[in-house]
Amino acid sequence: MKISARAGIAAALGIALVAGGVAAALRTPGPATAAGFMTDEDGRSLVQHGFSTASSAKSTPDGFPEFEEEELDVEYSDMGTNFVRFLISWRSVEPEPGQYSEEYLDGVQERVDWYAERGYHVMLDMHQDLWGSAITPSGMSGNGAPAWATYLDGLPVADHDMWELYYLEPGVIRAFDNFWNTTGAHPELAEHYAGAWRVVAERFADDPTVVAYDLMNEPYGGTVQGPAFEAGPLTTLYQEVTDEIREVDENTWVCLEPQAMGFNWGLPSGLGRVDDPREGEPRVAFCPHLYPLPMDLGDGFSGTSRELVEGTVAAWRSNVLRTAERLGGVPIILGEFGLDTTLPGALDYVDLVYETADASGMGVAYWSRDPGSWGPYEVDGTPRNLIGALDRPYPRAVAGELVGWDSEPERLVITVVPRAAGAAGSSGAAGSSGAAQVSEAYLPSDAFPNGGEVVGGEAVEWDAATRVLMFEIDPGATEVVITPR
Fold first, then answer.
1. Residue 80, by phi and psi: left (phi above 0), alpha (psi -120 to 50) or beta?
2. Confidence class of residue 29 from pLDDT cuts 50, 70 and 90?
3. Phi, psi of 55 (to 5 degrees)
4. Is 157:171 a contact under the CB 8 Å cutoff?
5. CA angle, 475 as apex, 472 and 481 as ends, to 5°?
6. DSSP β-ladder status, 401-408 and 411-417
7. What is the pLDDT of residue 12?
8. Which single residue of 72, 111, 351, 382 has CA 20 to 30 Å from 478?
């Protein structure tokens, strides 16, 4: 990729900032693991393993990804996924001010039902990049916001080969400033955004497949950046949206993303705590992204870049865990990470990120389910090298307090907080059938053709078709080790 002089200066400054942030994070590490997990109706801790589906939704006229139902069966067969971060857009929900598209919501429901029929969980992600498609006459640069909500105030937006540079364009900055009401001219825009989320939440409030709402993809503050943006306008918006959602949906989790620029590179977050007005325990989660700056600029995972990226991942992990603790000990889902897997060392990087997430108690949604060099399949459906890296053993649902897990090709180690004999799952509500005592793990067919042997628990049932092992955890156990049978 050819990088302009302007981009080169930005990259150099970014690397210097990231290096300082990495050093600071490593001097003051955060908690060892996440403090909590999303749970199912039986109180079991849920582990998310899946994709963001899909980037193609950004540019299709109807706002839906180029993804068919039968492709989901192939995905499960190849990688045993159980979760999707499904892209939706404000432009599609509210195509005109105050007018909401039932046709679009019906289409989202249809696709949610595909996942429901296969036992998946869904997080709906209100996606945007560079504000919206109306930032340029061609409509090919940004995505997310409707044209009617785009106010450039006559400021220019030049064309770029490197898409991130659009964020530095005066018109794009002004579009965001108008949304955050930094200009004082358009307080109605944030109100519309929160109202669009209310409409989505009202539609899916009673759908158990939809477990979370990702309130905004990769927020950008315009002229307000860093902690001032995160603790100010961004936290304020998240509170307003959460309040609107809770008027119609008390149970679905709300997922908060930090400012992307900086945090994705390993820097700290200034995001403020959001109060959940629902009755009972809050259902707020933290859903950051990870794109180390050297890889954002096109490098692979080798040589000097590898050393920088390893440091970034370590600092990012520390900052993620500290932020989640500050937000109230909330669950964590890594909502995006990915790369061109033809680059040197690419699969080593994928392994590093999954190992980091496993040890820290984070779910993962890989970016993305689109075909090509970043995805698991070629355009013609031919499997790619990413599949082998993502077809890994993992705990799907764990009765009790999950801490973390270690996934190896022929060994899955699940770490839990020991429970007393007769105790229920982590919520204390086992249900009349005792179902909350049964945990689940996905085991790949190549390494686990006949299921698994369980140490620290007892195998209950092996489903060879889905490759899901159901097992119970022994009272007092701190580890469950599953090896091939």
1. left
2. confident
3. -60, -25
4. yes
5. 55
6. antiparallel
7. 43
8. 351
β pairing state of 363-367 and 394-398: unpaired
- For 69, phi then psi, to 5°, come to -55, -40
Strand 49-53 to strand 363-367: parallel, antiparallel, or no bridges (unpaired)?
parallel
Instruction: Round to whole Å and give the CA distance between 233 and 272.
Output: 10
Q: Which residues 6+ apart lie within 8 Å of 483 measured at CB? A: 410, 411, 412, 452, 453, 455
- 181-211 pLDDT per residue, tens: 999 999 999 999 999 999 999 999 999 999 9
> Which residues have a Cβ under 8 Å from the Cβ of 272 and sit 6 or more positions away?
230, 231, 235
Count other C-beta atoms under 10 Å from residue 460's C-beta. Answer: 14
* Residues 429-485: tens digit of each pLDDT: 333 344 448 999 999 999 999 999 999 999 999 999 999 999 999 999 999 999 999
Average pLDDT over residues 111-125: 98
With pLDDT > 90 as the criterion, what percentage of the chain qualifies?
A: 88
Question: Phi and psi (nearest 5°) for 395?
Answer: -80, 125
Average pLDDT over every residue of 390-396: 98
pTM summary value: 0.94
| Six token digits for residue 182 | 């930094």
Which tokens sit at 183? 């200009």
Judged by phi (left if over 0) then psi (alpha if -120 to 50, else beta), residue 226 lies in left
pLDDT tens digits for 370-380? 999 999 999 99
pLDDT of 421 reads 72
Burial 191-228 (b: 16+ CB within 10 A, else e): ebbbbbbbbbbbbbeeeebbbbbbbbbbbbbbebebee
Taken in order of first residue, the domains within the chain and their CATH numbers are 5-391 (3.20.20.80), 399-485 (2.60.40.1180)
As a whole number, the mean pLDDT across the chain is 93
